[in-house]
Amino acid sequence: MIGNSAIRKEGRAKVLGRSRYTDDKTFRCVLHGATVRSDVPHGILKAIRFGEGIPWKEFTIVTAQDIPGENIVAAIVPDQPFLVPVGGEIHHAEEPVLLLAHPDKYLLEKARRAISLDVEELPATLDVASSDRVFKEINILHGDVDSIWAQAAHVVEADYRTEAQEHLYIEPNGMLAIVAHGDHQDQVTVCGSLQCPYYVHKALVHLFNLPGDKVRIIQMDTGGAFGGKEDYPSLIAGHAALLAWKAGKPVKLIYDREEDMAATTKRHPSRTHVKAAFDANGLLLGLDVDFTLDAGAYATLSSVVLSRGAIHAGGVYRCPNTRIHARAMATNTPPSGAFRGFGAPQSLFALERHMDVCAAKLGLDPAELRRRNFLKLGDTTATGQLLKEDVDLAGLMDRTLADIGYTEKRKLFAAANETDTPIKRGVGFSVFMHGCGFTGSGESYLASVAGVEGLADGRVAVLAASTEIGQGKDTVFSQIAAQALKIPMDMVEVAQPDTKVVPDSGPTVASRSTMVVGHLVEDAAYAFKQALIQQGFLTEPYAPEVFREAVKRSHARLGSMKCYAQYHNPPHIVWDDKTYQGDAYPTFSWACYAAEVAVDTVTYEVKVEDFVANQEVGRVINPVLAAGQIEGGVAQGIGWALWENVEWKHGRMANNQMTNYIIPTSMDLPRIRVGFLENPHPAGPSGAKGLGELPMDGPAPATLNALQNALGPLRLDEVPMTPERLMDRMEVARG
Amino acid sequence: MVVFNAGRSPFDRFLDLSRLSELQGIEEDATHVSFGALTTFRDMEDCPAVHRHLPNLVKSARATGALAIQNRGTLGGNIANASPAADTPPSLLAYGAELELVSSRGRRRVAYEGFHRGYKQMDLAPDELVARILVPKPQGLGFHFFRKVGTRQAQAISKVCLAAYARIEAGVVAEFRVGLGSVAPVPARARHAEAIIQGAALRALPVEAACTELLKDISPIDDIRSTAQYRARVAQNVLRQMLGELAAV
Ligand SMILES: Cc1cc2nc3c(=O)[nH]c(=O)nc-3n(C[C@H](O)[C@H](O)[C@H](O)COP(=O)(O)OP(=O)(O)OC[C@H]3O[C@@H](n4cnc5c(N)ncnc54)[C@H](O)[C@@H]3O)c2cc1C
């Protein structure tokens, strides 16, 4: 079962168009909702004006005044209101101020445009460099970096930056809310497109000031998320529920693409300064990294994004003296949020670009410089984490370089680039890791629970709040449970995430579903089998049909039997939040990616012509799904590296359309050659580690390193390296 | 359509032209290939006469939007939509196309060059329709060049688009026209650059002079898709590439 490319559980319904997304669910009496937003980045809301010619009486109108509970989105730092009240401060230009609902979508849109806001504008901070408001600051200290600059043979420093990235999941955000008014308490139910049912649940409990059992959150089929449906859905669900509560009717609040792109979260833009010291042999002596994220207007998840970014800033190298100073700063732009990789792609871009810059300064091949400095079994990372697994980064790198033909191509291209051909080619690579599961004490704090339940027909159901968002979670959980119970996969069902039915297995983020929750599913399945045996329904060994009969009998006799497993931090994993020292992650996945690029010097367009993605992710549970994750992540990474540019105008996204925000098509991507090295790790079920975010980390530095190889010394310090930016750099270099 | 869907169209009443047979069909005679305004991009891609005589138009059509757009979008619509970034106008300019306009007052025939008078301004009365697009068939030894620069390889809006046609007689450029997209408020002819090349020998094309003159033909801007500087430089580079290929004929 495990190790087989079982076909996706929900694949047939998706291919046949039978999946039910939020907007597919409807009722005759449903109202459509709309959000009125502030249109200035900073100011005080003085008044709301309702224009002429709209039958306002027909509308359900919600303002901050109507909110029954707390007007604040429950989050790590509760600072974001659901709606800015009159007299309140507007912190960004897409901030929700008022909600409308009406049965007629078109009239609703007219009404939305007929509302105007009186705002006393205040000066706005739109550039992170000019911000002085810190949301979170982290210092990681290891050795004494200031003591080594003087004794180093080489000190190399440079600045790097990365820009915002839009998730562009295929299904925009949307929620459907139903509120039943009870005698004593209301019952709030929200169905929607989301990643983390219990985050939304918590937000609505506070918004309505209701006990947990009066709020029910159900995940509908979801068309992608990539982190973009991690925190923002709490806001949309709250808005839909407020309208439904006031109207006494179901309300659907579905964003169109333009609203989704403009208003919801994006990847944090970053600025990184890296200073590295080497001895005469090219051994890394010291690393000083200053890492800044633009968090936008509210704290949201920025503190944890920053944390992952900071921990990954030292990369895969042994370094006796490291200082990482990281800050998440406030600006008056829409809040940045989670996006595949969660801060690591930003800091790893800086470091892996810097390694190539250093190699050039030291006169070494980039592969040789890295080889001399790779972490090995028994080394410690910047947070003092002792590496207990036998990582073979040099082997991973050598295999990747051989796969892409690095040595031959570097020679071949160098000669060809000397001629007057307008097309210049190069190869480059990056080596990196991604921490699996939540950072630091995150997992023990969450203490997630997953379960297995026996069904009347003899099958079992997996109970978890983890969401299927296109990554194949339903399939992988079924494989894990089927393997543990020694039954075929079609005897396993995966329950729809519904807070009334499934336990809180934590959010579907951080490459944790397979490794952490999958492990709980495996434990719960073993416990379920054990229970059947102990109660005398089953004896080992058994055939699947015998198991089915046993479950049926147990159900008939005892009713539904459920077994749960809860996460407990293994005692050998120790983390100190105050000093930022200890085991940052239970384990890491490791990778080396290589890119071959062709630059057209007529148009400054870059084409990635070949790409090799090799990684060690523990045991691979489903090779086809795993390769799909890697290919998709690489595509997203190449998009971020070369094209995906958010154009900001007065704190708003100006190119919030698929026409003008350029993600790659199949014509723009090479075949992505994916390889797995398997080194099973005890942290996950059957030795699996996390892999969902890993592929986002490597493509940008690999692609820009290849560009460097194609074009020679150039300031390639930023992604996306659009044709416009590349032209600027080439003209500056030419003088 | 896009503007209408986004709720930003000021209009809510429309005239459906799709069944007017007078506006359909591609015709060929001794001197011209003529296109009904309702000719789709797909029709152009499928028509042997267009491939044979006007290969730049085939390339324009193939570079337009996605297959679905190519199946539905029309040449008349591409012209009358009056986008400076449209991909057939540079080819029509390079081939010296003319338009036939109709209204209840009659028909008139105008050169396509000059039809666009300013951003979204056309020599088209409110009651007039574009009926046909007439393109003279190139005669003799011809050189055709088309290049669209969008940010991605497909489904992109042009940042620079350049189409050129040259007739070569005894090693000399006897006729030469260049049409450009996305570098001015309207699809533009490169009159200044053309003048430098017109009459020059293939062996000694004044390439750099033409590239410098090109800046007089264009007035690119910064917008959400690109920068003025990029558009100007890439227009020059593509012209240089085109002249390099012309010199090698
Ligand atoms: C997703 C997408 C991608 C696109 N990509 C490209 C691209 O890459 N390159 C490109 O050039 N274009 C592109 N377009 C634009 C498209 O090609 C043109 O808008 C199309 O050619 C219009 O043809 P239509 O018949 O649909 O015209 P319509 O949209 O029906 O009309 C467009 C305008 O022209 C007027 N009009 C139409 N026919 C006539 C006529 N016979 N006489 C007078 N006025 C008329 C209409 O009143 C309207 O104002 C794209 C459009 C979309 C939606």
Set out the fold topology.
The complex is a heterodimer of chains A (735) and B (249).
Chain A: H1 11-15, E1 31-37, E2 43-50, E3 60-62, E4 89-90, E5 96-102, H2 105-114, E6 115-121, E7 134-142, E8 154-162, E9 174-180, E10 187-192, H3 197-208, E11 215-219, H4 232-247, E12 251-254, H5 257-263, E13 270-278, E14 284-296, H6 302-312, E15 321-330, H7 344-362, H8 366-373, H9 393-404, H10 406-418, E16 423-435, H11 442-446, E17 449-454, E18 460-463, H12 473-485, E19 492-494, H13 513-534, H14 544-558, E20 562-566, E21 575-576, E22 581-582, E23 588-600, E24 605-616, H15 623-642, E25 648-649, E26 652-653, E27 672-677, H16 694-697, H17 699-711, E28 718-719, H18 723-734
Parallel strand pairs in A: 1-12, 8-28, 10-11, 14-15, 18-19, 24-27
Antiparallel strand pairs in A: 1-5, 2-4, 2-6, 3-5, 7-15, 8-13, 9-10, 9-12, 13-14, 16-23, 17-18, 17-20, 21-22, 23-24, 25-26
Helix pairs in contact in A: 3-4, 6-7, 7-8, 7-17, 12-13, 15-17
Chain B: H1 2-5, E1 26-28, E2 32-36, H2 41-46, H3 48-53, H4 55-62, H5 67-72, H6 75-80, H7 88-94, E3 98-103, E4 106-111, E5 116-118, E6 121-122, E7 129-136, E8 141-149, E9 160-169, E10 172-181, E11 188-189, H8 191-197, H9 207-217, H10 228-247
Helix pairs in contact in B: 8-9, 9-10
The structure holds flavin-adenine dinucleotide.
Flavin-adenine dinucleotide binds next to helix 5, helix 6 and strand 7 of chain B.
Description:
The complex is a heterodimer of chains A (735) and B (249). Chain A has 18 helices and 28 strands. In chain A, helix 7 packs parallel to helix 17 and helix 15 packs across helix 17. The longest helix of chain A is centred in the last third of the chain and has 22 residues. Chain A is globular, with a radius of gyration of 26 Å. The model of chain A has no long low-confidence stretch (mean pLDDT 97). Chain B has 249 residues and is an alpha+beta fold. Chain B folds into 2 domains: 113 residues, Uridine Diphospho-n-acetylenolpyruvylglucosamine Reductase, domain 3 (2-Layer Sandwich), CATH 3.30.465.10; 107 residues, CO dehydrogenase flavoprotein, C-terminal domain (Enolase-like, domain 1), CATH 3.30.390.50. Helix content of chain B is 33%, strand content 26%. Chain B contains 10 helices and 11 strands. In chain B, strands 1-2-7-3-4 form a 5-stranded antiparallel beta sheet. A 4-stranded antiparallel beta sheet of chain B has the order 8-9-10-11, with helices on both faces. Chain B has a two-stranded antiparallel sheet with strand order 5-6. In chain B, a hairpin with a 2-residue loop joins strand 9 and strand 10. In chain B, helix 9 runs antiparallel to helix 10. The longest helix of chain B is centred in the C-terminal third of the chain and has 20 residues. Classes of the chains: A alpha+beta (735), B alpha+beta (249). The interface between A and B is medium-sized, with 26 and 23 residues. The complex binds flavin-adenine dinucleotide (FAD). The site of flavin-adenine dinucleotide has 20 residues of chain B, from helix 5, helix 6 and strand 7. The site of flavin-adenine dinucleotide (FAD) has 20 residues of chain B, from helix 5, helix 6 and strand 7.
